[in-house]
């Protein structure tokens, strides 16, 4: 992916019929892109006072680092997870491949230990981890939160002093997939989340934009 200077393994699982052989008894659901606005309205309607000052509503978010690559493939199926790359240096790919030199280029083989794109079952498997994080943050830590695949959204009041966001970061660290701090959005009344820009400054007056 040239736009991000990343080398992504994408499995052509449709053509090789791997997706056709995937049988799953579960389906994923995703939140709407304006989920923060829906939650803000719900909180405002049930609050005991206007949401201003120390009760001002704030929004933040966290992003998983190496999201798909952070989910390991089943050890007994690694024989089906061999990838080949032509014309890329080992240093750039960060792999430990067995290389075969040809006259035109270098063919590199490596086991892909993390999930690849293109596999329909990988989406369901990947989605289980953020679902677990959200379940813990809501039920145990009492932090209003949600996820859209690898993007975690957090909503709090100003007097909580970002404690919920810190708790989410620590939980992600404890569960083995720390947040990518370069993509973190600190708690604020104005924030971009899931491609939508939210402004909660006027929520006490019934305005969300």
Backbone structural class:
alpha+beta
Number of helices: 4
User: Biggest sheet: strands, sense, closure?
Assistant: 4 strands, antiparallel
In helices, the fraction of residues equals: 10-25%
Measured on Cα atoms, how large is the radius of gyration? 21 Å
Say what oligomer this is. single chain
What is the strand tally?
Answer: 9
- Which segments are poorly predicted (pLDDT under 50) over 5 or more consecutive residues? none
Give the H and E element order. HEEHEEHEEHEEE
Widest beta sheet: strand line-up: 5-6-1-7
- CA-based shape: elongated
Please sum up the structure shown.
The chain has 209 residues and is an alpha+beta fold.
Give me some keywords for this one:
single chain, 209 residues, alpha+beta, 4-stranded antiparallel β-sheet, 3-stranded antiparallel β-sheet, 23% helix, 22% strand
């Amino acid at each position: 992916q040239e736009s991000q200077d990343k080398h992504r393994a994408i499995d052509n699982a449709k053509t090789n019929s791997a997706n056709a052989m995937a049988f799953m008894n579960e389906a994923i659901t995703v939140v709407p892109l304006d989920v923060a606005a829906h939650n803000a309205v719900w909180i405002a309607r049930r609050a005991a006072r206007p949401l201003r000052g120390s009760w001002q509503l704030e929004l933040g978010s966290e992003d998983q680092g190496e999201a798909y690559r952070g989910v390991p493939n089943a050890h007994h199926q690694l024989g089906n997870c061999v990838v080949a790359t032509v014309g890329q240096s080992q240093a750039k790919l960060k792999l430990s491949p067995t290389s075969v030199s040809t006259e035109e280029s270098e063919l590199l083989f490596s086991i892909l230990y993390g999930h690849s794109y293109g596999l329909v079952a990988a989406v369901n498997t990947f989605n289980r981890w953020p679902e677990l994080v959200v379940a813990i943050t809501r039920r145990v830590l009492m932090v209003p939160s949600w996820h859209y695949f690898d993007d975690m959204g957090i909503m709090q009041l100003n007097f909580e002093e970002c404690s919920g966001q810190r708790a989410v970061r620590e939980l992600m660290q404890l569960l083995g997939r720390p947040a990518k701090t370069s993509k973190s959005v600190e708690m604020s009344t104005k924030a971009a989340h899931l491609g939508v820009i939210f402004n909660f400054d006027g929520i006490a007056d019934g305005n969300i934009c």
